[in-house]
């Protein structure tokens, strides 16, 4: 986990940890729960290290957009 975690991470925010072979691994919320999705379910501007906003009412959660504020505020890696 990064040494300096950005503030404001709620259960509807996730870090794009990995994008490979058409799959994405997101680390959701402050507990960093892994979520596996198809890479095509992410916004076009989402890359590894990007924070995204989730609609957690959907199953699986729907990625709505990139959270520029969190992405710019803190470490962009999961390790």
Globally, the shape reads globular
SSE order in H/E notation? EEEEEH
Q: State the separation between the terminal residues, measured CA to CA.
A: 5 Å
Class from secondary-structure proportions? mainly beta
The unreliable regions are none
Indicate the radius of gyration in whole angstroms. 11 Å
CATH architecture: Beta Barrel
Might you state the CATH topology name?
Answer: OB fold (Dihydrolipoamide Acetyltransferase, E2P)
CATH class: Mainly Beta
Q: Helical element count?
A: 1
Indicate the mean pLDDT.
Answer: 88
Percent range of helical residues:
under 10%
Strand content: 35-45%
Largest sheet: 5 strands, antiparallel
Read across the widest sheet, the strand sequence of neighbours is 3-2-1-4-5
Overall tally of domains: 1
The number of E-state strands comes to: 5
């Amino acid at each position: 986990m990064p040494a300096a975690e950005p503030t404001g991470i709620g259960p509807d925010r996730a870090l794009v940890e990995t994008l490979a072979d058409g799959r994405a691994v997101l680390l959701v919320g402050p507990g960093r729960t892994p979520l596996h999705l198809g890479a095509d379910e992410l916004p076009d501007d989402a890359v590894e290290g990007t924070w995204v906003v989730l609609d957690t009412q959907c199953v699986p959660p729907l990625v709505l957009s990139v959270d520029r504020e969190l992405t710019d505020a803190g470490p962009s890696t999961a390790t």
